[in-house]
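Q: What does the assembly look like in three dimensions?
Context provided by user:
Components: two
Sequences:
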Amino acid sequence: MRNDKACEERWGCLNDLADGRLVGRKRSRLEAHIESCERCREALEEIRNIKSKVRQTEAPHAPDGLWGRCMGRIADRPARQAPFRWRRKPAVGVAAACLAAAAALVLSIGPFSVHDEDEIPHDHYVMEHAGFAAAQPLDMSSHHILLSAQGAENDRRNPDAESLETPNDAPNTHVR
Amino acid sequence: MNGLDDFQALVAGYQDAIYRVAYRLTGHPEDAEDLVQESLIEAFQAFGRFRLGTRFDHWLYRIMTRNYIDRFRRRRRLDTVSLEEVSRDGETGDFADSSSDPQALLEKNQWSESLQAALAQLTPDFRAVVVLCDAQGLSYEETSKVLGCPIGTVRSRLHRARCQLRTWLRPHVEAVGGK
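A: Here is the predicted structure of the complete assembly.
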């Protein structure tokens, strides 16, 4: 008894053979098999028969006036405008939209420099500061200023003393 | 090339093939006419991108098969005549035939009906491959370009479609003696 499954696996190649796409040793082997296998021979004959019938069978004629109607519809249609490239490429469209939004934002804010008419005169700042300083004298008792004052006093008394904070032989302990 | 006259001249050279492909794909004269009209309008709108050296009929087939698969598959108006009905009723319809032998004419038209009914039962993808390869005689390479799929896909679809057609048409082949 023939191995039907093996034959069915060959039927893809039978299509290739019927279409003239099988060459060389594959073709020789398959043709040798077909000689001895009635089932595959019949399958090949069916494929060729269907191919031939599909090719030969005619379709109805086109209805009268079909081509005139088609061309009439085409001629009646308004010419379609060519689409902008950015509409066909979303990335370009998004980039263009972002640029437009950025430009609109810049224009709405205005230039970065202050207009001359809005500029506040320098003398005005000086006057303001002098008035503020007179009203609130500097507080010298704050810790930061006190430390600075003490450091300056130490330097004045013992100028040769090494700084405790940055000894020359200390390893580099900077924390990165 | 983008004028209506150029387009019309090219279409005139392939009218029969265009309608035949549309009819084989849709299985309905009315649907075939719709498909032809829509595809020609779309083709004319894209005619500015048609490059000389390209086969106009293949370019048009590509638009037609895409339209067919996209739109006609959804409409599900494809099935018309069952194979059983064809076997019972040998209506010939309005098919072109050059033969004068009544018996040959009858058998041929029976074949046309049966074949069309069998094609209608294939999925749109399978039917497109059979129509292009077997009815229009396009090579696997040409069909793959028209359908925009690999050659291996064309080959496997063709194989499976023919297997289905063989199964469905076998009773008819036996009835008419395989002519």
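Follow-up: Chain A has a mean pLDDT of 71.
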